[in-house]
Amino acid sequence: MSAAPGPRFSAFSRLLHWLMAILLLTMLFIGVGMSASVSHRYNLLVSIHKPLGFAILVLVSIRIVNRLISSPPPLPATLPRF
Q1: pLDDT tens sequence across 37-60
Q2: Per residue in 23-34, pLDDT tens?
Q3: Measured between alpha carbons, how far is 15 from 39 in angstroms, rounded to an integer?
Q4: Which of these, 2, 20, 31, 47, has the minimum number of CB atoms within 10 Å of its CB?
Q5: Residue 78, φ and ψ in degrees, nearest 5
Q6: Mean pLDDT in the chain?
Q7: The 3-state secondary structure of 16-52, one letter per residue
Q8: Residue 20: exposed, middle, or buried by beta-carbon count in 10 A (0-12, 13-18, 19+)?
Q9: pLDDT for residue 4 is more than 80
Q10: What is residue 15's predicted lDDT score, i.e. its pLDDT?
């Protein structure tokens, strides 16, 4: 039998985390594609890259506010102090 789960981050915090992870990985692949593509694809990739960057900036701002409003769960007692 498994132990009961301890305190967790809120569902909204987890959603923001995974949404940003997906967007950052997408930006990484778009950036690689921009540096390796020919001119006709470059403009398309830049037109995707810029709005995604702005969306990430907005999500970072939301995450900062969310972190100030809702405190994270405590660290496990088994974790060393340092």
Answers
A1: 666 788 888 899 999 999 999 999
A2: 999 999 998 888
A3: 36
A4: 2
A5: -80, -10
A6: 87
A7: HHHHHHHHHHHHHHHHHHHHHCCHHHHHHHHHHHHHH
A8: middle
A9: no
A10: 95
- Cα separation, 16 vs 28, whole angstroms: 18
Helices and strands: H and E segment counts in the chain: 2, 0
Which residue, 30, 11, 29, is CA-closest to 73? 11
Cα 37 → chain centroid: 26
Length of the chain: 82
How far is it, in rounded angstroms, from Cα 51 to Cα 26? 12
* Residues 19 and 59 sit within 8 Å (Cβ to Cβ): yes
State the pTM of this model: 0.77
Dist. CA 62–CA 19, nearest whole Å: 12
Q: Residue 19 and residue 77: Cα distance in Å, rounded?
A: 29
